[in-house]
């Protein structure tokens, strides 16, 4: 069985994109590797980027995803293993004459979609390797890949939606069964990249 990376369309003029501007947890910068222990925490504070006023069912900043209530309700109905956190729309920090979702925001309620589980890759079969393990903060840095990944069916445990344990990224992956459920509803604002295989 295959699994897929889900991400934004990267077409700013078609569906609105945003920048996440907070909220960040307390943390510190490691003096050795330069990685911060800060992380995004609810509420997810966003500001809309110039491009269009059209908000897709899925909206993105990199791999961070917010969804409309219709998506949340549908994924909940089919027991996707994820949680939803609140989203706050902030006033844009820069003025522009380009089209942008208006502020104050009066559009549909949005939710920050976050998979509940991180599943480990088969590192050798996936061509993923440890680049560095910081002796000061303990953070492990692996090379990030979007394709050619291998996940164990047993370790996946039947989950439809997940992230990869070796990746610090917020990239979201879906199984073939999950993709079938998603596509039959016709939601907008995402694309799929074949990421790899689930093997016995």
Structure, described:
Helices cover 14% and strands 38% of the residues. By secondary structure, it is mainly beta.
Outline of the structure:
It contains four helices and 14 strands.
* Continuous helix count: 4
Query: Topology as H/E string?
Result: EEEEEHEEEHEEEHEEHE
Q: What portion of residues is helical? A: 10-25%
Counted beta strands = 14
Q: Would you tell me the overall average pLDDT?
A: 95
User: What is the approximate shape?
Assistant: globular
Rg, Cα atoms, Å: 18 Å
Low-confidence stretches: none
Major beta sheet, strand line-up: 8-12-13-1-14-11
Give the biggest sheet.
Answer: 6 strands, mixed
- Alpha carbon gap, first and last residue: 10 Å
What is the element layout, followed by pairings?
Elements: E1 2-7, E2 18-24, E3 40-48, E4 58-61, E5 64-68, H1 69-77, E6 82-89, E7 110-115, E8 118-119, H2 123-126, E9 130-133, E10 140-142, E11 149-152, H3 153-156, E12 161-164, E13 172-175, H4 176-185, E14 191-199
Parallel strand pairs: 3-6, 8-12, 11-14
Antiparallel strand pairs: 1-13, 1-14, 2-3, 4-5, 5-7, 6-7, 9-10, 12-13
Provide key terms for this protein.
200 residues, mainly beta, 6-stranded mixed beta sheet, 14 strands, globular
């Amino acid at each position: 069985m295959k699994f897929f990376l889900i991400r934004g369309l990267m077409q700013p003029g078609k569906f609105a994109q945003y920048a996440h501007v907070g909220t960040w947890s307390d943390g510190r910068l490691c003096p050795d590797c330069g990685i911060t222990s800060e992380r995004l925490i609810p509420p997810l504070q966003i500001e809309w980027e110039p491009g269009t006023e059209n908000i897709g069912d899925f909206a993105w900043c990199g791999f961070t995803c917010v969804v409309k209530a219709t998506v949340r309700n549908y994924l909940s109905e089919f027991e996707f293993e994820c949680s939803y956190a609140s989203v706050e729309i902030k006033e844009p920090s820069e003025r522009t004459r380009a089209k942008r979702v208006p502020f104050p925001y009066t559009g549909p309620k949005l939710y920050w979609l976050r998979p509940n589980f991180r599943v480990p890759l088969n590192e050798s079969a996936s061509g993923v390797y440890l680049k560095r393990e910081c002796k000061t903060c303990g953070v492990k840095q692996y090379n990030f890949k979007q394709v050619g990944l291998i996940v164990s069916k047993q370790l996946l445990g039947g989950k439809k939606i997940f992230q990869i344990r070796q990746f610090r990224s917020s990239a979201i992956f879906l199984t073939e069964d999950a993709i079938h459920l998603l596509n039959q509803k016709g939601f907008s604002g995402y694309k799929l990249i074949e990421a790899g295989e689930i093997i016995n």
